[in-house]
């Protein structure tokens, strides 16, 4: 029994709205993410590039860091959309989170956490975190960090 239902279409819509805020003057690659919390809130994130490149941040991590910085640590799903700003919306490809973002997800989410990769509100795939990051190294692997 889930307290909060996951509505992929709503999350995808929010991810596209987040993508509008992407700051990608160097790559032109614009990413939007919408993170659903266990209690039903949605945090949006976009990628934020830097001229120095290394400080750049992915849309997924932006959403996670916004939520965690406000005290939220339980999540159910994230929708992710991305593509070059010049690519027509009807030609977007599925966009999966990078390895660094998958590792951040592992910090806060169970393997059943859902990752919705979408081309549109009606064209999407749902994967679990354990599918996208099998044999993950997580908090349980660091005994000193346990509560
Ligand atoms: Zn990433």
Report the average pLDDT across residues: 95
Molecular shape: globular
Strand order of the largest sheet: 2-1-3-4-5
State the low-pLDDT regions, or none. Answer: none
What structural keywords apply?
5-stranded mixed sheet; 4 helices; binds zinc ion; 147 residues; alpha+beta
Description:
The chain is α+β, with helices and mostly antiparallel strands and 147 residues long. It contains four helices and five strands. It has a five-stranded mixed β-sheet. It is globular, with a radius of gyration of 15 Å. The relative contact order is 0.17. The mean pLDDT is 95. Zinc ion binds next to helix 2 and helix 3.
What is the topological layout?
Layout: H1 8-19, E1 29-37, E2 42-46, H2 59-69, E3 75-84, H3 99-108, E4 114-118, E5 124-128, H4 129-132
Parallel strand pairs: 3-4
Antiparallel strand pairs: 1-2, 1-3, 4-5
The protein binds zinc ion.
Please give a quick description of this structure:
The protein is an alpha+beta fold and 147 residues long. It is built from four helices and five strands; from the N terminus they run αββαβαββα.
């Amino acid at each position: 029994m889930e307290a909060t239902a996951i509505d992929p279409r709503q999350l995808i819509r929010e991810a596209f709205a987040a993508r509008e805020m992407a700051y990608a003057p160097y790559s032109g690659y614009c990413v939007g993410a919408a993170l659903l919390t266990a209690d039903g809130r949605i945090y949006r994130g976009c990628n934020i590039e830097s001229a120095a490149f290394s400080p750049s941040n992915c849309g997924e991590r932006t959403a996670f860091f916004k939520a965690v910085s406000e005290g939220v640590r339980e999540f159910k799903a994230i929708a992710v959309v991305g593509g070059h700003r010049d690519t027509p919306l009807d030609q977007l490809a599925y966009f999966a989170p990078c390895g660094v973002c998958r590792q951040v997800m592992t910090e806060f989410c169970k393997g059943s956490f859902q990752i919705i990769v979408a081309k549109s509100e009606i064209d999407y795939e749902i994967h679990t975190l354990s599918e996208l990051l099998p044999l993950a190294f997580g908090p349980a692997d660091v005994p000193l960090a346990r509560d």
